[in-house]
Design a protein that fits this description.
- This protein is mainly α.
- Helices cover 91% and strands 0% of the residues.
- It is built from 2 helices and no strands.
Length: 43
């Protein structure tokens, strides 16, 4: 059972990594990080 869980987690991690490499998703991630940083400075 643990082997299956590890395989699923590795598959999910690869999918996230592949998606994050796409330019349109990089822009979206950077915008989200900028919003988080902005909220932190306003507190």
């Amino acid at each position: 059972m643990k082997l299956m869980r590890t395989a699923v987690l590795a598959g999910v991690a690869k999918k996230v990594y592949d998606e994050s490499r796409k330019p349109e998703n990089q822009a979206r991630i950077q915008a989200a990080l900028a919003r988080v940083r902005e909220r932190r400075t306003h507190r």
